[in-house]
Amino acid sequence: MSGEPFLIRQVVVFLDKGPGNLAKLTRHLSAKGINLRALSVSEKGDFGTARIVVPDPDKCIEVLQEAGYHHRENDVLAIEVADRPGGMADALDIIAGENLNVEYIYCMIDARRGLAGLILRTSDLAKTIAILTAKGIKLLTPDDITPL
After folding, report:
1. CATH: 3.30.2130.10, 3.40.47.10, 3.40.50.620, 3.10.20.90. Which one for 9-73?
2. CATH class of 76-145
3. Per-domain residue ranges for the chain?
4. Exposed/middle/buried for residue 76 (C-beta within 10 Å: 0-12, 13-18, 19+)
């Protein structure tokens, strides 16, 4: 799906489980000028997975490689919904109504504008883009999540 304007490059970092490892990662990225726009952390077994969205994924990957972090990247979508009870549910109902599976989701909040940004990965990103666009859900581009 290369070239799709609504795909957001997400960087996934694998961390050993233990006190301070996430702090060490975020401090290292901060020291190199990497601003996290969204973050989700989960654990499985002896390791954790940090999913991050950053303004410059190429720079982030370079910084991770130099520091020896195991990582990969994949595409996700970012959509804008009202920051109110049911805002997320409305978008998820549309996705579910098309028999698409949400593999994972996490949020960015812009309380000043009363909006929430949802970062999500589904079983079929191209179909998700088509149905959400058709239903009037605003899909965000990489430029939309990059601070001015």
Report:
1. 3.30.2130.10
2. alpha beta
3. 9-73, 76-145
4. buried
Q: How far apart, in whole angstroms, are the C-alpha atoms of residue 122 and residue 116? A: 18
Both structure tokens of 110? 């812009």
How many residues belong to the chain? Answer: 148
pTM reported for the whole predicted model:
0.87
- The string of pLDDT tens digits covering residues 31-86 is 999 999 999 999 888 889 999 999 999 999 999 999 999 999 999 999 999 888 99
CB atoms within 10 A of CB 67: 13
The count of other CB atoms within 10 Å of the CB of residue 24 is 14
Beta strands in the chain (DSSP E): 7-16, 38-44, 47-53, 70-82, 102-110, 115-122, 138-139
**Cα 6 from chain centroid (whole Å):** 12
